[in-house]
Structures are given as C-alpha cells and as structure tokens.
C-alpha cells in the first residue's frame, strides 16, 4: 500500500543559506548607509562576501539536487518555471517605478528645473555613441542565447557552448562599456532629478546585467560538464528568460532615457 504522504513534489532539506543571504543583505544595506555618511566600506565588503558565499553554496546544492539526485521531476519543473516568471514579473514592477519617476519629472518639468528637460546645466549623453553600441551588444546577446537554447534542444552541444560563450562575452562587454560611460558622463547622480533617475534606472539595469551574466556563466560551466540535456535544462531556460527580460528593459531605457530624454 502506498504511503499516504507520498507525493511527486520536492521538499527541500533545512538549509543555512537563506539565513546567510539575509545576513549579507542586511550588512550591505547598513554598510551602504555607513559608507555614504562616514566612508566606511568594511561592512559592505562583508555583506558582499556573504552574498557571494550564499550564491556559491546554494547553487551548488541546487545543481546537486537537479543533476545527481533527480529532484527536478516533470512535476517540479513547471513550478520552478512559474517561480521564475513571478520573479521576472516583480522585476518588471521594480523598473516600472523608475520609469514612473522619470516621466513624472520629464513630462512636466518643475520651475526648479527651468521648466525644460533635461534641466538647465545638465548636458545629457549622446544617445548615438556608447548607448547605441550597448544596444547592439545586448540585442546580439539575445540572438546568441536563443541560438544556444535551440542548440541544446537539438542536442548540438558544441553550438550551444559557442552561443552561450558569446552571450557571456557580450554581457561582460556591456558592463565594461557602461563603466566607461559612467566614468566619462558630464553629470553625476547629485545633478538634479535627471542625474538621480538616470543613474538609478541605468545602474540597476547594469546590476541586473551582471546578475544575468553570472547566471549564464554558471550555465556555461554546467553545459561543459554535460549537465544539460535536450529535455532537462530548466536552469538554462530560467536564465535565458531573465536575459531576455534584461534585453527588453534596456530597449525601453534606451528609447526613453537616452534618446527621448536627451
């Protein structure tokens, strides 16, 4: 007789990593405040270290559960995908708040801004220089990650590795170009509401690019170790969805903030 408690779902074991990750987030938040007010960066570094450790060990557990223990069954995989979609939806509302702040200030500039947008004294970046190049880089990365996805489904491992390697390269290139753009920007985050909304929106997007690049780099390592098959690659699917989300958000940022906003 089958046990009445038997079910096809995966019940995770007790883990210290959520607590460690929460502690890292706390230290980053408190350390950020101390850094801005007093220039202390040791607590921020501690928080970042805890987050990196959490990422490494927690992902290690997930890889073990999915690849070697077979916990990601046909019943579990759709739930993982639903969770990723809900996470992306929460990120959409996250960026929606930035766009709301930008259009609230730009569509009806206040008297303090000179009743013009961009505000008087602010020289915006040329939208047809580095931002346009970054747009081409991200669009290319979207094509290469789709190529890698179809290659995995078709069982073409070498093509998948090449496509995913190019995607990771484009992600790193985008981040490098954005660092150069910030370094050469003629305004700062303290320059009116324009600088604040610009650096918040584009900076958080750049942070998401770093996260997405990390996701795909881990998938690339797993792909090289033959941990993805044509039927079992839910981790890569979730990462590719996240990367396409980052691509779409950048298109809106480029059109609204860089091109129209300047």
Q: What does this molecule look like?
A:
By secondary structure, this protein is mainly alpha-helical. It has two domains: 1-72, Helix Hairpins; 74-259, Cytochrome c oxidase, subunit III, four-helix bundle (Four Helix Bundle (Hemerythrin (Met), subunit A), Up-down Bundle), CATH 1.20.120. 73% of the residues lie in helices and 0% in strands. It contains seven helices and no strands. The chain has helices spanning 17-38, 42-68, 76-106, 130-153, 157-184, 192-224, 234-260. Helix 3 (76-106) runs parallel beside helix 7 and helix 4 runs antiparallel to helix 7 (234-260). The longest helix is centred in the C-terminal third of the chain and has 33 residues, at 192-224. The chain is globular and about 65 Å long. The mean pLDDT is 90.
């Amino acid at each position: 007789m089958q046990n009445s408690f038997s079910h096809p779902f995966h019940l995770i074991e007790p883990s210290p990593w959520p607590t460690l990750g929460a502690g890292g987030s706390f230290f980053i938040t408190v350390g950020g405040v101390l850094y801005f007010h007093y220039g202390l960066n040791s607590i921020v570094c501690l928080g970042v270290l805890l987050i990196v450790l959490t990422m490494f060990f927690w992902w290690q557990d997930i890889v073990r559960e999915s690849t070697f223990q077979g916990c990601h069954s046909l019943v579990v995989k759709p739930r993982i995908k639903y969770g990723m979609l809900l996470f992306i939806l929460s990120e959409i509302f996250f960026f929606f708040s930035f766009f709301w702040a930008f259009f609230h200030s730009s569509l009806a500039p206040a008297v303090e801004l000179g009743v013009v947008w961009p505000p008087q004294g602010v020289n915006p970046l040329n939208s047809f220089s580095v931002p346009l190049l970054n747009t081409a880089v991200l669009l290319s990365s979207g094509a290469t990650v789709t190529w890698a996805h179809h290659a995995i489904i078709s069982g073409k491992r070498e093509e998948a590795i090449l496509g995913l390697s190019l995607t990771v390269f484009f992600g790193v290139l985008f981040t490098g170009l954005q660092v150069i753009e910030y370094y050469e920007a003629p305004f700062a985050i303290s320059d009116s509401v324009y600088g604040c909304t610009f650096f918040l929106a584009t900076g958080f997007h750049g942070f998401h690019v770093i996260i997405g690049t990390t996701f795909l780099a881990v998938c690339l390592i797993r792909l090289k170790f033959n941990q993805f098959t044509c039927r079992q690659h839910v981790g890569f699917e979730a990462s590719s969805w996240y990367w396409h989300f980052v691509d779409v958000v950048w298109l809106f940022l480029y059109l609204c903030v860089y091109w129209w906003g300047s």
